[in-house]
């Protein structure tokens, strides 16, 4: 069994000095590096999605799944043994390596001389061998390690079965990919030789700015482009130079495609679209000619808008792997650059390209005259979420006790696509339950389902169920008794996804700005499950169910030391910003470039944080045994305890006066 715990540590802005308890303490964002959520999220989902298919050249060929291009699930064609992979590495055939899952899985792009094309293969690594890292570095291979998840979903601790850890995220991915598949045409197996990269043309998208909510600034930025597309001649007449290319940057599902469609819709011009990731599976020369076709067609239909989704798949830095400028991707990129340079003056064609990884783009793409403007869309804040929920509840029947602002509060970390999905799921549930309106029950159930997966089969009574109950109550009690922790929303033994039990928390006001105190409290809360197992059942009876918890708390502790400067080592960023969230890189690469003493100091500080948190957690369990026993009894009987029920029992049997536990989890409902 492995367990999981999904904190809502939002990586965007973390400020050590932040103290929410003080009045008038204006929140000042600290200029902290931004972690790449998308990649990290995809990472966790990945391996389970890859299925096996027929074989090619001694490799088993998997069906591609329509996932993000850099997840192990994405268009990965084959599996390869580690020893075989080393051979290819020695033969200089490996072009790019992406490491996932703490360095246990690699996705490599390898040149296949028989087919004369690059293939993506998945390799299960025996841990992360130093030898491999050295080879990759020596050969100067394009290489990236993808971070472990620090989730920005509402926090939950869970107790999962084997392989459960990635599954919570898998569910989310599947929901997302299935939405995409339905919109994105057929899913062809890899290597059938049929090019999927056909551009699409919509004469009229029918989307307007009203359909895109919570991104007012971006809409403002695009107003000028809309005006230009409406009447290009007006601008040409006065000699105005309009940008040709705009880079739209933001995490997945934040409405980039929708926004681009809305620009075309507002201006009433045709919308041409193409996805960068589809070029990767094409034969040499096809990508470039598609780009040429696309631009020719666009020029004939000007004024119009070209939208290139996932431009990073094509637009990564050139010249990093072997093969010089000859591979398919580079040819495609070169063609794109040529086309961008090709239209002189105001041709009435605007190109918008979307990415969530602007930092990996070839700088040539960003030069003046190409994608020289950037517009960002981020995950929506609470107000943005409410606006988006409004858009997606327009055509739905809602019960009168549904308050969109309350839903917005409960969905911290959700993207626009997640919110659209949420409303749709709720409508489906209401239909299935024979209701004529969506009620808060359907909304609650859909949130749970999106975050933690489908409801599973209930556990049978017995020792394991009691153990899970103690584990979850341990999380809830330790979290509640540690100042700075988010309040418990509910504790449940109703299984979801692979989780057998779950403890949910309500994220604080601003989950993107977290203090040292709050991070430490999360470590104590995260260790509460294991602490309960050890204290109640004895040291030899602790289970594998806490594995996920341990992984997450270790990562938080490591980040406190190396990223957020929250240890006695001091306010240093001890990792390369590009790889900061990755344990594997920390251990294997960063160690190479830092002194042995510093590496030891880091380990020491991490250990200190975790050990002191574990002591605190164990003491909470020891000192509150009566309350915990009672809570477990009630939980076993009722299966789910609301935050209020939980706090009522806890406060009866514990001296918790010093702890702020009466925070009302959901503020008074206001008419939405
Ligand atoms: N700001 C928003 N307002 C309203 N709906 C939104 C918004 N953002 C996303 N959605 C909903 O989510 C769906 C998917 O969003 P979209 O494909 O535009 O996101 P994206 O940023 O392009 O994602 P990706 O990077 O994964 O391609 C939209 O069709 C819409 O239903
Ligand atoms: Zn747990």
From TrEMBL:
Q: Which Pfam families match?
A: AAA, AAA_lid_3, FtsH_ext, Peptidase_M41
Q: Which cofactor does it need?
A: Zn(2+)
GO MF terms listed in the record are: ATP binding; ATP hydrolysis activity; ATP-dependent peptidase activity; metalloendopeptidase activity; zinc ion binding
Does this UniProt record's set of keywords contain RNA-binding?
no
Q: Where is the major localization of this protein? A: plastid
Any one GO CC term of this protein is: chloroplast thylakoid membrane
Domain AAA+ ATPase: from-to ranges: 242-381
GO BP: proteolysis; PSII associated light-harvesting complex II catabolic process
What family does the entry list?
In the C-terminal section; belongs to the peptidase M41 family.
What name does UniProt use for this protein? AAA+ ATPase domain-containing protein
């Amino acid at each position: 069994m492995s367990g999981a715990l999904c904190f809502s540590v939002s990586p965007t802005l973390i400020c050590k000095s932040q103290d929410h308890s003080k009045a008038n303490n204006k929140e000042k964002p600290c200029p902290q590096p931004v972690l790449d959520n998308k990649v990290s999220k995809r990472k966790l989902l990945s391996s389970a999605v890859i299925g096996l298919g027929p074989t090619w050249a001694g490799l088993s060929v998997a069906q591609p799944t329509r996932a993000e291009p850099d997840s192990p699930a994405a268009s990965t064609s084959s599996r390869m043994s580690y020893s075989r992979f080393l051979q290819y590495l020695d033969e200089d055939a490996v072009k790019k390596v992406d490491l996932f899952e703490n360095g246990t899985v690699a996705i490599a792009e390898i040149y296949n001389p028989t087919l004369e094309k690059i293939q993506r293969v998945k390799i299960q690594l025996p841990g992360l061998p130093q030898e491999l890292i050295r080879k990759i570095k020596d050969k100067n291979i394009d290489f990236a390690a993808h971070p472990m998840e620090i989730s920005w979903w509402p926090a939950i601790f869970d107790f999962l079965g084997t392989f459960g850890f990635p599954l919570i995220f898998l569910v989310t991915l599947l929901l997302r990919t299935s939405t995409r598949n339905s919109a994105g045409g057929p899913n062809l197996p890899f290597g059938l030789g049929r090019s999927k990269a056909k551009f699409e043309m919509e004469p009229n998208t029918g989307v307007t700015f009203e359909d895109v909510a919570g991104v007012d600034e971006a809409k403002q930025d695009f107003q000028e482009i809309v005006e230009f597309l409406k009447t290009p001649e007006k601008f040409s007449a006065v000699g105005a130079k309009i940008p040709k290319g705009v880079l739209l940057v933001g995490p997945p599902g934040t409405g980039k495609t929708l926004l681009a469609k809305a620009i075309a819709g507002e201006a009433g011009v045709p919308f041409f679209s193409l996805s960068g990731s589809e070029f990767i599976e094409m034969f040499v020369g096809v990508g470039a000619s598609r780009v040429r076709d696309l631009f020719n067609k666009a020029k004939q239909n000007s004024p119009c808008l070209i939208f290139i989704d996932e431009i990073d798949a094509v637009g990564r830095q050139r010249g990093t792997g072997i093969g010089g400028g000859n591979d398919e991707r580079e040819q495609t990129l070169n063609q794109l650059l040529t086309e961008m340079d090709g239209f002189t003056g105001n041709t009435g064609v605007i190109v918008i390209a979307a990415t969530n990884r602007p930092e990996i783009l070839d700088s040539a793409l960003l030069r003046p005259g190409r994608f020289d403007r950037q517009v960002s869309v981020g995950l929506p804040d609470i107000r943005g979420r409410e606006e988006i929920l409004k858009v997606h509840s327009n055509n739905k029947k809602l019960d009168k006790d549904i308050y969109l602002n309350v839903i917005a509060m409960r969905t911290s970390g959700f993207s626009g696509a997640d919110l659209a999905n949420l409303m749709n799921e709720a409508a489906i549930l209401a239909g299935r339950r024979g209701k004529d309106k969506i009620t808060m029950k359907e909304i609650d159930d859909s949130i749970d389902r999106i975050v933690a997966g489908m409801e599973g089969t209930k556990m049978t009574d017995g020792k394991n169920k009691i153990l899970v109950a103690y584990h979850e109550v341990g999380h809830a009690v330790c979290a509640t008794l540690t100042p700075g922790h988010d309040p418990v929303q509910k504790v449940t033994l109703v299984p979801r996804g692979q989780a057998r039990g779950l403890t949910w928390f309500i994220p604080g006001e601003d989950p993107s700005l977290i203090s040292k105190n709050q991070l430490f409290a999360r470590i104590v809360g995260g260790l509460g499950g294991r602490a309960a197992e050890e204290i109640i059942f004895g040291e030899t009876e602790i289970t594998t169910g806490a594995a996920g918890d341990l992984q997450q708390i270790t990562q938080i502790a490591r980040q406190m030391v190396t990223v957020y400067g929250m240890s006695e080592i001091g306010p240093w960023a001890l990792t390369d910003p590009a790889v900061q969230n990755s344990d594997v890189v920390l251990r294997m690469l960063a160690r190479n470039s830092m002194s042995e003493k510093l590496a030891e100091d880091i380990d020491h500080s991490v250990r200190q944080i975790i050990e002191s948190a574990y002591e605190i957690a164990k003491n909470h369990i020891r000192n509150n045994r009566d309350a915990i026993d009672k809570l477990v009894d009630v939980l076993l009987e009722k299966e789910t305890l609301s935050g209020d029920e939980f706090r009522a029992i806890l406060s009866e049997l514990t001296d918790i006066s010093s702890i702020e536990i009466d925070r009302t989890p959901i503020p008074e409902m206001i008419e939405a």
